[in-house]
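Query structure, 142 tokens:
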């Protein structure tokens, strides 16, 4: 049973309302039993469970890394509160690429993206848009 659970977890949970319930059903076990088995496996048979979202599969067609130059931390508040921002970082500018804020953004429609850019202009910040060309699978951490 443990090997079967490991194989299923490696393939990824189904994108459903009740992924553990659906997984348990396919194993012919109770959902509680599955969850307890997974808990017991953590740190031994499996390292960890993490979410990796395929934005395209859930309808996000526009994915853009934004590099922003600003002296205002208000822009960070705007970015971190936006439902379209999944990652937001402040970094030291290096002189060659002189931006200090970076945000990974995701939008379903062009209109959402344009509204976001319109709201961003209120901060009088300079920015570069770096659209995603191709997504590579995230590597496993050691």
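Result returned for the query:
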């Amino acid at each position: 049973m443990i090997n079967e659970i490991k194989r299923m977890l490696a393939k990824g949970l189904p994108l459903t309302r009740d992924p553990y319930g659906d997984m348990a059903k396919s194993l012919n076990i109770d959902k509680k039993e599955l969850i307890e088995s997974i808990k017991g496996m953590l740190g031994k048979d499996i390292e960890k469970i993490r979410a990796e979202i395929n934005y395209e599969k859930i309808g996000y067609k526009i994915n853009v890394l934004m590099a922003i130059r600003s002296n205002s931390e208000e822009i960070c508040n705007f970015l971190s509160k936006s439902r379209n921002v999944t990652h937001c970082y402040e970094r030291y500018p290096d002189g060659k690429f002189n931006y200090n804020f970076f945000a990974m953004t995701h939008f379903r429609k062009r209109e959402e993206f344009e509204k976001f850019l319109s709201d961003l202009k209120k901060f009088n910040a300079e920015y570069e848009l770096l659209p995603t060309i191709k997504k590579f699978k995230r590597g496993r951490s050691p």
